[in-house]
Amino acid sequence: MPGKLKAKIVAGRHLPVMDRASDLTDAFVEVKFGNTTYKTDVYPKSLNPQWNSEWFKFEVDDEDLQDEPLQITVLDHDTYSANDAIGKVYIDIDPLLCSEAATVISGWLPIYDTIHGIRGEINVLVKVDLFNDLNRFRQSSCGVKFFCTTSIPRCYRAIMVHGFVEELVVNEDPEYQWIDRIRTPRASNEARQRLIFLMSGELQRKIGLKVLEMGGNAVVGYLQCFDLEGESGLVVRAIGTACTLEKISTLPSTATHQSNSSPSKDMKDSPQAAPSTLGCRSTHSSPVHSASSRLSQGFSVSVPTLLFAGMKPRHRSSEAPRARQCRPVFGEEVPGIPLSSGPPTPLRAQTFSSFSPSKSYSRQSSSSDTELSLTPKTVRMFLCPSTPALESISSSLPSTHMPCHLRPGMASRSSTPPPLHVSQSDTAMLRKSVSFSEELLLAASGMGSGGSAGKEAGPLKALLRQQTQSALEQREYPFFTLTSFPSGFLLHVGGVVSARSVKLLDRIHNPDEPETRDAWWEEIRQEIKSHAKALGCHAVVGYSESTSICEEVCILSASGTAAILSSRFMQDGPLDTEHRLSRQPLVFSTGSERVEGDMGSSASLGFEEVVPPGCGFCHIPYDELNIPFPAQLTYCYSCRRSKVPDVLFTTIDLPADANITGKGCLIQARLCRTKKKAQGEGNATAISNLLPFLEYELHTQLMNKLKLRGMNALFGLRIQISVGETMLLGLASATGVYLTALPGPGGIQIAGKTPSDITYEQHISNMQKKINDTIAKNKDLYEINPPEVVEEIIGSPIPEPRQRSRLFRSQSESSDEVSELDLSHGKKDAFVLEIDDTDAVEDIHALLTDSPTPQGFYSCNTEIMPGIQNWTSAIQMFTSVRVFRLNNANLTNQGLNKIFSDLCENLLKSLYFKLRSMVPCCLCHLNFTVAIPEDELIQVAVTAVAMSFDKEQILENGKQSGEKTLTKAITENDEQLQFNLELNPESSHANPLSSPKGLSEVGSHPSARDRCSSWIEQLRLKAHTIRRGSVKTTSSMEKASPLPEGRSRSLRSNRSYSGTSVAVVKMTPLSFIPGAKIIKYLGIINMFFIRETTSLREEGGVSGFLHSFIAEVFAMVRAHVAALGGNAVVSYSMKECVFMENPNKNQAQCLINVSGDAVIFVRESELEAASVQPQSTTHTSNGGEGT
Amino acid sequence: MSVELDVFVGNTTIMDKEVYQLWLNGYTVNDAVKVRIEGGVMEECEASADVLLSDTMDQYRTFQMCERLLHHPAKLANQLLFQIPPDRQAMLIERYYAFDDLFVREVLGKKLSKGTKKDLDDVSAKTGVSLKSCRRQFDNFKRVFKVVEELKGPLVENIRQHFLLPDQLARDYAAIVFFANNRFETGKKKLLYLTFQDFAFCAGQLINHWTLGAVDSMMEDMDVDLDKEFLQDLKDLKILITDKDLLDQHKSLVCTALRGKTSVFNEMEANFKNLSRGLVNIAAKLINAKDVRDFFIDLVEKFIEPCRSDKWTSIDMNLFLTHYTNSAHILDTFKHHAVWTRYMGVIKSCILRMYHD
């Protein structure tokens, strides 16, 4: 019985009138936890009752504390009839269980009713006394901190990143139980809310246990989702990244808790030094995080088929055979493997085998057990990337190629039609690898051998690699849900990997054994893992999972960015802090060696140099001679030492230290595809068949749009595919930037196939002109004027004539977008659109109709806009939802596309208009969610934050940025110093160490690099050095280009800050608040609400209904945060917004799930003021600001 | 193809002042969009009509949801549903409670009853203020009236506290409440030249000097009603006109003081007794509720009109009233100095305010 929960009901206000006669209410409150219920007295005849109750005490297991919410029900006493419920409040106790989070929940919380919405407020006090339980077999995981934030939270430092944790729980959905027919909507809704609360509590507890097992103390990037599977049940699943975090500074307020784990003590001794590594908020503050990568996207569709039945060896998969399930492909089909190399595309086969780089090979060996076991099961496809196109390009042929890489596998699969796809890559930019379900195998096993043979890297390299990877390899899934990383953690980025699988839902028979769902996800993850391998990467970062459900069909999707990470944060075995200090350089060097190893193949030279922070992540992680897909490689435009791809696609944020040119912008590809209505497996098959096309076209669009903006990399790529009865929607959003390290994109060339017709030619040349103009305009708009550099393209070794021809062939097969080779244009104009058919015309049209953002606005879907600093503290988070009805049932794909695209464009325009008063401003973290709630309805929901910035400072940017890099470290230290002085005077002495330390790390880097590699590399090295002279100028110019990172750190404007006494709670989807420092994380906010109405018209129709519901959800989030003592929610997101209406019955229902991290922040200006006096007193008052 | 649902919710509630005003003015969404288009917002922000429509609808919805709170402005500050910065809250309240002078002039002094509300369409037609807006304004008057009616303490202060209105607006509401409560007649033809601000000024004078609260702010009664005792005492002033000697003496004192100082001296001298009788009679009759209602009309008929026909300037008026008031104190047999001062102070400022074209 290790916990005592205490609750006190103080008062109520603004209660609704429950007694018509007196226009008053006789309210009392029931407080329930687990099976224990207490009641307050009735406070008669008042709308503002003062109960002032005693403390209600619940003695409970900490397991229950984690699982259950405290339920507070406010009722109206009625002498003669049953008491009427006024509403409820669910309080998540979890934040109180962690010593570093909140200590008490106290404040006014809205009383919520699923039918009437908010009905007044109640003032409560909740506390928990927790006893230590050292029982090894305990089922609880109290004390594990959860963060939605997908970077290391700002006031913590990561000591170790343990890796991926996942869990799911299933249950029957109360809404679909028989009893639902006889109970009231209110009872059903409440049963559902309660159940989901319980399930997420349980889920969190279980994940916490896994974290403890791994030796961690926190989950970062916690992503929890609900799958409302309808009759087949309710699934709550979560993924996250287990870490060991250490608090950087202790606040006076935390002093009250004693936490064993609280680092405050350690902190003092601990080297502050590490700042550069992570903890420092300043580092993080720049939202742009690293990683750019190229996109290769792996895409796998699993087709439901019976075929598999025989083949799956895996235990989990054993169920697969069940007819009902669509099995994905992947699996284990042994048979599949061979196929991959199969006939259709020899090209592929070839690529594969060759491509597996030595690394992969070595990896394999090291990780032998896991891998082995895995390999048999899964067949991977991976896809690859589109490389083919690239290759062709490099050969100077621009071609998009449609490569088809169809995978033979598919063909074999009965269900999958061969069509697909491909990876398209348009010019080299997009590398998408599509894998069909079954195809590729990249299998580890297959590859391994191939790779080994192929690799040139000597054994030494292999060894290094092996070391580095060992930490990762031991894990089942080397995945990280983080999107930005402590500096030095992310070494290289390979590209986007993704996998999708179509499943038929079946009733979950035994909620305690959610194996089917587990197995599904396991398959997908294996696939992702193998894709990453194919890219020569040992980890996947920016990883996320999602589902789309329509009736009984469910599409599971996972995507991430293949990457190579430094092992610095992944040592097995805890480092104690003391040690860490001394050991650090050592560790680091190992890390770098490894890096080197990774880079070895790609970056051949530079023994003596450190990997440049601004471009290192762009360097290809795979072996140049064995590229997993055709790519056009050049030497890095920044450092000139390593190879970089021509385009990078990633799912992560731009690394803080990445060098970029100009500004970024939001790029969206939107697509709609009609589908025949079908049932069951037929439906699943039809969807599987459509998916690859959808994905291919999305990538083509992205690529086109990227080029049109003169950019060469995408960050934060998120592709959402939504399924409805008669259509599929695809929406890909990303933030485009021009990475200085990568070559400039070529233009877009339009070609017609029938050149004989003069008017036609004219038409074409008009279009071409338009496109060229647009590109020029965009370059101007986004200030993209990269330094001219002499290009040296190192052709990727792969392109051979044979392939080229193949590409062609594929082109002609799919008439969609065709690339044409035009030697005269050279690589810059390698991108050719052929507009021979209407599709292509449409595409071009769509390309040009994307309206530019109005003056003064920028938009991006990453944390902050690359290239903008100087944020002011004015932020405005918002959610906008639109539902569009297609009255016209017989729309063509083009028609639908147009509608869908207009819908998104108009929505954006509305947002710009709404927020015009904030100009100049940037819409950050624009997160679009599409759904098809019903036939003919398209729902788009957007959550984002608008942040103003100072224009003047922007102009100076260029100037500043040069110095910025230099000064950055210093500033950070400075800041930290101030902070510590104020908060924790003792620790300040540690600070001075930090700067030296940072230096030493850097210093160690080069030494690490001097590991050499094969003779080939040596050669390259030589070549490189020769070139160097010429390169120099460029790199210096680059220095001058604006760095993306800045944020408001230096900003002190608090224009918008009005020192009011009202408890203002800021909300933002970002992990930081401009112009402010987060000084404490109070716990995770994870809330689920249902609202239903039977008087839709009276509530203002659907819009009125949803408007007030969303406003209520915001209000409840704010109130709970304020009750925890916080003044902001960061990393806020609306995960789910399911809206259903029945206007004929005047009814509607909506479910919303939101989450975020409750924090206390302090304005930097206040901090500065406070730091003048080293006392912590001022601070405390600041902390209380939000309450 | 149609947009079925379109919602925008900000963490900080976004409200456009211009649209708010259109909403308050009773424009329909479509009319408001037209007005906005004409206003040039579109060009400024590169928006289309659709965008404008969507924004307008959304704002209208927000205002409707807020309206409930605006009825009890104090709730706006501690409600949780909308996060609105304090300056915005103040703006919302102030504009919601703002009214058209034209409109208020029509209902000033009328009973704030259902009957009056029914006639609002006439008022709307007459003033050009939309019916919706008239209703809002009328309901505001009524709401303020109801709340304040029962409260003790200073009227203006009560209004300011309960409705969080800025000072001037609170005073105006005090005037409206005061007029409604005492049912002063303001609609007669002869009074039409007076603006609301004229009446509001007079109301302020009456509230500050003639109500119970004026004498003793701790009084438990409020200052919506005139001080009965004072009204009673006013009857004593009759002696100024009933006693022939006093009247003559008074006249000669005033004439002496004014001789040569005013161009209308002769007219003044000729009319003195009439004017004095008029003022004193008004005082004496105020004890009757009906005569209270006619207070302003009496002032105009008995005093302002005669002076105006004699072409007094306001300077003349000021001089006369000053000396008229002061001279009474010199009269030997006149004992009611306090009442006289209290009465004439208000009368003088009211007349001076009302004496214009």
UniProtKB/TrEMBL annotation, chain A:
Name recorded for this polypeptide: C2 domain-containing protein 5 isoform X5
Species this protein is from: Danio rerio
Top-level taxon of origin: Eukaryota
TrEMBL record, chain B:
Gene Ontology CC annotations of this record: nucleus
Pfam families: FIBP
Signal peptide as annotated in the record: none
GO molecular function: fibroblast growth factor binding
InterPro entries assigned to the protein according to its UniProt record, in alphabetical order: FIBP
Name listed for the protein in its UniProt record: Fibroblast growth factor (Acidic) intracellular binding protein
Taxonomic lineage: Eukaryota, Metazoa, Chordata, Craniata, Vertebrata
Gene from which the chain derives: fibpa
